[in-house]
Amino acid sequence: MEHIFKGKWITNSEFANLKPRNVFHKQLDKVDLPCDEHRNRHILFRKNFYCDNSGNNALIYISADDYYKLYINGQFVAQGPTPSYHFNYNYNVIDVSKYLQKGENLIAVHTLYQGLINRVWQSGDNRHGLILDLVIDEKTVVASDESFKTSPHTAYTEMGTCGYETQFLERYDSNAAEVGFASFDFDDSSWESSQIHRYADHTLTLQKSGMLEFETISPVNTTAVENRILYDFGSNYVGYLCVRAKGKKGDVVTVRCAQELNDDGTLRYSLRANCVYEEEWILSDGESFLDWFDYKSFRYAQLSIPAGVEILDVCFCVRHYPFELKTQLRPEYTSNEDLKKIWSLCVHTQKYGVQEVIQDCMEREKGFYLGDGCYTALTNMLLTDDDSMVRKLIDDAFSTTFISDTLVTCMCCSFMQEIAEYPLILVYLVLWHYNYTGDKEYLTQNFAKVTKLLEAFRNAYEKDYLLRNLDKWCVVEWPKNFQHEYDVDIREGQICKEAHVSINAYYIAAIRTANAIATILSLPQYRDEAPLISAFYTAFYDKDNHLFKDGETTEHISLVGNSFVYGLGLCLDDEFQQKFLSMIKKQGISSLSFFCTFPVFMGFVRNRRYDLIKQCLLNDGAWKRILKEDGTTTFEGWGKDTKWNTSLFHLTMSYAATFMADVDLNALFNGI
């Protein structure tokens, strides 16, 4: 049952009268959305209240746009909400009984309006605010209104952005007047009263996924050279560097973080993923505490300290989605040390990489990507026996029909991108979820959405049973150097006029999946596959070579194009099967990347060639290469130099665990 808020959306005078701005559009539409006026706004709220008892049953219902960190009586409680769209905006319900005390109490909230057009939040839209109700023993004790005091938090000034305008680098000043705002003895008498946001238009929905958990990681090694102290936390994680130091007012500590070291042992704080992790911390007299707001992905941290500064304590506050490993490595793999290491690599990546959404990389984009997200969400469900991340991805993906009836690439954000094959992979995930959970009610809910999506593709792009004239980018395989000279112009930012084998293989497999769902639900078949299969063979099959061409107008045959045909089960001819297996043996699984490897493994499962899965897993150029290059989390590819902006903490390749987990893979992939 949804909570009906008594509280109002409150904000400060800067945002109270701003009208919401539309940030949504088709990718190829040229839209100018400047983000200079309202950006990087850290806005604080405080409210004192009286409690007759300690609160045996105290719940706080809370949300903020873009984000909040909640404190009660000086203690950090939680942060959120997960990224979501304003018309389906998530709120959290948190049991705060243990934080309350009899008598005077304090709620303090730190909110952020980032104001950038990027893959992280739906921001840049002039929507800022906080809403909350504190309910004790079913009585609303506090509701957000003008009685809350508010102030900007002046400790945070920007030092530029990093990644794809993903986050602000922070210069944190421990001398700012608002430092300590969450404590009882803080003086907020000069703060202004909050204002009701005049144009607040959020429709609130209970967040169905879990909230972040936090761990404190201590350095495994500390090295001091001159005025620089280097801390190694043993692995790449995601979160916040926490430092307590003693110095004098105005001392500046330079904070650098990195995912790896240079060959000479120095810090590589200019990350391969095009993030330069260099920030400043200005100390106050006596003890100061570094209080980052936004998170980073790193293993190493280095503090450059002025003379006389003493570092008292350093730790890594690591954040991640709740994770409990419920599925074990397949018994036949447990005797192989390399396979055990690959399994551990993937499990560790999943545990510490999944955040409030299934995102791809932890630093450059922080984006809720649909395509590879289907594979990593599936992996997360298999490892944890928890389907909440799969459901969030499915629900949020289908909700993007308000932007495009054929969906968008990156969800719950203001960055507009469309990739053609991603929504088709979503169709498979709907069936995989049912095959694993048996939840027929959820399958029924999604079947209408699946068929509506496929009809949208049919009406917009299908001609003579083939998809053409796609005004969406077709990735096919990524990065480009893994495309095997795929001979179709699939560059981003234009219409791909030619029908080609990869996208049509995805499309037919999605239609086949819809038919499989219809059978499960005892419904009529969605559509006859036969005419599409016939057109597919006519357009792409090379009878002489028993393989498939890349496109209608080329004779070029690539491993990439044939990977989808094989993996998605579109040609069961024995000669094709043998030809393809010869290609993969010759060129190796490491010549493929994100989007071909998964379906190829699916094909191995269909043909019960588990021996080939094992061979590919043990390929020296694939997951073993990541381990050889000291990877503690899966990379954005097989090696550090795979692409020009390689993330060293990227979730996609953790999907190896799907094919290593002790589950019935044939039952999982049945129907595709």
Structure, described:
It contains 13 helices and 27 strands. It folds into 3 domains: 10-189, Jelly Rolls, CATH 2.60.120; 214-320, Jelly Rolls, CATH 2.60.120.260; 331-668, Glycosyltransferase. The protein is of the alpha+beta class and 672 residues long. It has helices spanning 337-353, 371-384, 388-398, 422-437, 440-461, 501-520, 530-540, 559-567, 574-587, 594-606, 610-617, 623-628, 665-668; strands at 10-11, 41-51, 58-65, 67-72, 75-80, 89-95, 103-113, 129-136, 139-143, 149-152, 156-162, 167-173, 192-193, 195-196, 204-206, 213-217, 221-225, 228-247, 252-258, 278-282, 286-289, 296-304, 310-320, 462-463, 466-467, 541-542, 547-548. The strands form 6 sheets. Strands 11, 12, 16, 17, 18, 19, 20, 21, 22 and 23 form a 10-stranded mixed β-sheet that branches. The longest helix has 22 residues, at 440-461. It starts with 9 loop residues before the first strand and ends with a helix.
Name the overall outline: globular
What separation lies between the terminal Cα atoms? 36 Å
Give the class from helix and strand content and strand pairing.
alpha+beta
The strand count comes to: 27
CATH top level of the largest domain?
Answer: Mainly Alpha
Number of helices: 13
Task: Quote the average pLDDT.
Answer: 97
- Roughly how much helix do the residues carry, as a percent range? 10-25%
Strand content: 15-25%
What CATH calls the topology of the largest domain is Glycosyltransferase
**Unreliably modeled segments:** none
> Radius of gyration, rounded?
26 Å
- The assigned CATH architecture of the largest domain is Alpha/alpha barrel
The major sheet is characterized as:
10 strands, mixed
Domain module count = 3
